[in-house]
Amino acid sequence: MRLQPLALPEVVVIEPAVFEDARGWFYESWNRERFAGHGLRFEVAQANVSRSAFGVLRGLHYQWPNPQGKLVSVLEGEVWDVAVDIRRGSPGFGRWVAATLSAANRRHMWIPEGFAHGFVVLSEHATFSYLCTAPYDRACDAAIRWDDPALAIDWPINDPSLSDKDARAPLLAEVPTERLPVMP
Fold first, then answer.
1. Helix, strand or coil for residue 45?
2. One of 61, 62, 117, 125 is an active-site residue; which one?
3. Greatest Cα-to-Cα distance within the chain, rounded to the nearest angstrom
4. Does 61 participate in catalysis according to the annotation?
5. Do residues 110 and 15 make contact, with C-beta atoms less than 8 angstroms apart?
6. Residue 99's beta-bridge partner residues?
7. Is 108 one of the catalytic residues?
8. Which domains, ranges and CATH numbers included, belong to the chain?
C-alpha cells in the first residue's frame, strides 16, 4: 500500500498493493491495522454505495456537528473526487484538493472529518463506495455549493447534473459559523 498526501496533507490518496495474474486481480481495500500503521486510525460505522451517470456531480457534502470521515473508491467507471477544508481555524480553510479515482487505477481517497466532499462522474457510469466513520445523520447533513466562486474549484465538467439539494446549497461564506466544523 502506498499513501500520497495531497496539498492538504490530511487528505490522502491510497494506492493498494494489487495482486494480478491471468485469472484476475485482488487487493485489500480496508485493513484497520495496516491503515493505522500509516497514521489513518478510524472505525467504519457505515458503508454506502452509489451509482451515477456521466456528468452527475454529488456534493459538496459534510455533516456537522456529527462529522463523518470517508474512505472513498470507485468500483466501476471514473470520477474526479474533491475534498474542501471547511474547518474553522484551519490554515487550509477554503482550500481544495482533487484526484481522479477509477476502477482501473484502484485508488482510494481518505477525506477526514471536517472536510466537505464531492465528485463528478467522468465515465458513462460510476459505482462509488464510501466507508464512513459515523452513520448518516439527517439533522447534521449539510452542503456547500459546488461552484462557489470563493473556492474556485476547477471542475472538469462545466454543466453537471445536480440534485435539487446540491443546486440550492449555500456558498461557504453564507454558512453560519456554528454549522462549520472546528479545527481540532
1. coil
2. 61
3. 55
4. yes
5. no
6. 81
7. no
8. 2-179 (2.60.120.10)
